[in-house]
Model the fold of this input.
Amino acid sequence: MKIGFFIPEFPGQTHSFFWREMQAIQALFGHETSIVSTRKPPQPVAHEWVAQAHADYLFPVPVPGLLRAGLHLLRHLPRLLRDRDTRALLGNLRLWAMLLMAARLSLHARRAGIDHLHVHSCANAALIAAFCNRLCGLRYSLVLHGPVEDYGPHQPYKWRRAEFVFVITEVLRAQMAERLPEAADKMHVVPMGVDTDRFAPAAAPPAPPPFRWFSCARLNRIKGFETLLDAFARVARSHPDLPWQLFIAGEDEQGGSGYRKTLEARIDAGGLQDRVTLLGAVTQQEVLRNLQISHGFVLASHHEPLGVAYMEAMACALPTIGTDAGGVRELITDGQDGLLVPPQDAEALATALVRIMTAPEEAATLATAGRDRIIADFGAARSAKALGACLSG
Done:
């Protein structure tokens, strides 16, 4: 079977998981894979696997491609318009652009020999896949990576003909089963995972103090970096003799000219210039290197559907602090394999930071339990095995 992975704006900073999933599905099941994307991302990505990850893009459309897609759409339009649900959607003129992209996708899938389209989104890409299915019968599945409200309208239409849908947490599954009960039987809870052979503790322990904290996410308000900096400023005031440094990997959507400026001002205002370093966009290898030379990991997201960054840190046996928001509690059990604090609570986060830095035995216990948790339940092959099983079932 040939599987097309349909991923919006590929490659992105957070797309390493998708690449690992593709490699695993090939290795475990022998399926051929290809990548289809809506368009290239606005900012280039430095991950080392990007050079190997060829993608075919639906947009922009060259004139000959536009003509072919238009003719293909016209040929199949009568059948489309016989479908009441599709006919109702096409009263919205904006959706005709999505329909044209679906025609391009249909032609591409036929040329490339794609048998099944696995859509890593429930936003516009899911609508394009649903239109494509009605155009040419191409089978498709969806992945819901976060609250469905973030993925736009027309969800019943997107889900109706999907062969199966992966949701990454039990929280999301319960929400969607209530919202779309007719789709409950096709939902599977399949969390993202990490390569625990690669993401593992370094052979040698990290250097002695200062305590090195690492945080990694795109620079966006939802990731809670202002709360994180406020918490560290509190630690600096309450424990002036406690030695630590914080390194933050990630970049904003404007390539450093957007939210990063807000964080730089926050660092200056808190007097943290000598303790906090913004690393910018880094490769997956650099993420791994930073994890292996750090003493602890912290991410203060306002909301996190699950959190691959947490998984990677826990796999590297770092004591990990997260926020009790979204699906994170399905990954971290507070006090057992990590610490959880309320989102946007700088005081609680500061207390947790000090706790890790001043209780090395507890930190070591959390670190060991964290790695055990990831090995047991969040290995990289899990989603690939689930995908292979659904495709063969």
